[in-house]
Amino acid sequence: MSEILFKYAKLANRSVLQKLFKQYPEENAVIALNNLLASKPIESVTEQDVQEIEQKYRVNLQREFHLNLEEFYAVYFNHYLRHGCIDTDAKKVLSNLRRILRLSEDSIRTLQIKIGERVYRQKHEEAVADGTFTNEKKISLNTLAMDIGLPDDISRKISEEVRIACIKKFVAEIVEDQRLSPQEDRKLQQMAKNLEVDLSYTPETKQQLNKLRLYWALENETLPEVKTSISLYKNEICHLIIPGVAWCEMRTVRTHVSTVGYSTSIRIAKGIYLRSTSHKPRSYSTEQLKQLDRGTLYLTSKRILVTGTHKSYNIRLEKILEFDPYKDGIEIRKDAGRNVFLMFSEQLDIICIMLGRLLEG
After folding, report:
1. What is the distance, to the nearest Å, from the Cα of residue 168 to the centroid of all Cα atoms in its chain?
2. Nearest of 84, 37, 27 to residue 57 by alpha carbon
3. pLDDT for 335-356, tens place per residue?
4. How big is the CA angle at 346 (ends 345 and 352), to the nearest 5 degrees?
5. Under a CB-based contact definition with an 8 Å cutoff, are residues 235 and 291 in contact?
6. N or C: which end of the chain has fewer CB within 10 A?
7. Within the chain, where are the H helices?
8. b vs e for 131-160, b when ≥16 Cβ sit within 10 Å of the residue's Cβ?
9. pLDDT value at position 184?
10. For residue 72, what are the contacts with CB-CB under 8 A and spacing of at least 6?
């Protein structure tokens, strides 16, 4: 016997006039049908039971409450879909429900596709969530599509959309993490193969993933060694070269003001004026960031070196307390002397990762 899915509902009260003329609220016909379906299994409900409701309430359910009838059918159809494939018993229940509600095949087909698309997509998402798409899963989903009556073109479209979305979700997680390890890279390739998805990226996405691979390598593998013509210390290795870097430091700038206050002039003779204010020289000082030089930056295993136009500047790594990155450069805080601001924009992310790793030892 089928499971009863409906619950009893209270009928609407009749108005005085309805009682006088022995009438009933029309909406009670739908409530009575609900209570009928809640009273016994669907297999036991007959067309005669439904006709008696129509006669009592003087309505044509098919014409006046067609959407409600479709909703009764949809409840059972959705229930069976969410609890697995529609077996023989379920098909009998749905067939009898369609018959007693007098729903057309077109109505049933439209309902099944509308409900089925949503359920099929959900089941498909659950099936590929682990990045696999085995033959067993394919057979199960194909069976579900046939039970629903889902056209092949719709089921194929949903399948493709779900599998691509699964790959995109994994890529989004990688981008959010800002790193792409070799293990994740292999997993991505294997997922694409399992889900039969062609890994084609936009140029922007491809460039971003390559950068995330580089970030991971800079943090976990041996730092790159760059050949340079400058003189290095013994066992010193150059890791990065950035041209066009400005060496800036805070400098005190004194500003002079010759007079203060309001001033007026009185003409006492031709070409001679008497000023009403007294001369009170004043000055004040401010700290301003000043560019001292510009040249090429070399990040080595022992120091930061900038070969400027006027001279070369060194900051040994052991003298660096910390550094703060900005969109137009990095500020180096040292254990002694003035802090230094290196102003540039190219490869700012790269030097921050490499310098952070070098300072960690």
Report:
1. 10
2. 27
3. 998 999 999 999 999 999 999 9
4. 80
5. no
6. C
7. 16-20, 27-39, 47-57, 61-64, 66-82, 88-101, 105-128, 135-148, 152-177, 182-194, 203-220, 348-360
8. bebeeebeeebeebbebbebeeeebeebbe
9. 96
10. 6, 33, 34, 37, 97, 101
Question: Within 13 Å, how many C-alpha atoms sit on residue 179's CB side?
Answer: 11
Place of tokens 């000043």: 290
Burial class of residue 280, CB neighbours in 10 A (0-12, 13-18, 19+) = exposed
For 44, phi then psi, to 5°, come to -90, -10
Which residues make Cβ contacts (< 8 Å) with residue 309, sequence separation at least 6? Answer: 293, 294, 295
d(CA 144, CA 88): 13
Single-letter residue type at 223: L
pLDDT-derived band at 268, boundaries 50, 70, 90: very low
Distances (CA, A) of 258 to 255, 279, 281, 344: 10, 7, 4, 38
Residue matched to tokens 């006669």: 55
Residue with tokens 């959309």: 161
Other CB atoms within 10 Å distance of the CB of residue 81:
22
What tokens were used for 101?
């509600």
For the stretch 330-336, contacts whose Cβ atoms lie closer than 8 Å and that sit 24 or more positions apart, written own/partner, are 330/355, 332/304
Contacts of 59 (CB under 8 A, 6+ apart): 26, 29, 65
Place of tokens 């792409």: 180
